[in-house]
Amino acid sequence: MLGKKIERVKKEKQPSKEADLKEIKRKLDVEKEKERRKEVQRKQQPQQEILTPNNTLFVENLLPSVTESNLTNLFSQHSGFK
């Protein structure tokens, strides 16, 4: 009788192959969902264009009273202004 109890306890502690397969499938499903979410995020992010450096600064919406001298004084404080 003790031998039967030991066998029953061993069987209870050992996961079945079916349970193992279910757990593996669950883990794979989780990984697939993570990858799917990453792909959705990549598609939602705007594509950044790589532009070559440019020496032109475009300024708009200035008041009519702003002169070239005003802009020169403002931007000459920063390196790179010519």
Shape: rod-shaped
Low-confidence stretches: none
State the order of secondary-structure elements, H for helix, E for strand: HHH
Record field, number of beta strands: 0
Helix content estimate: 55-70%
Number of helices: 3
How far apart the termini lie comes to 97 Å
Strand content: under 5%
Mean pLDDT: 80
Give structural notes.
With 82 residues, this protein is mainly alpha-helical. Helices cover 59% and strands 0% of the residues. The protein has helices at 2-13, 17-44, 68-75.
SSE arrangement:
Elements: H1 2-13, H2 17-44, H3 68-75
Write a brief caption for the model.
By secondary structure, the chain is mostly helical.
What keywords describe this structure?
mainly alpha
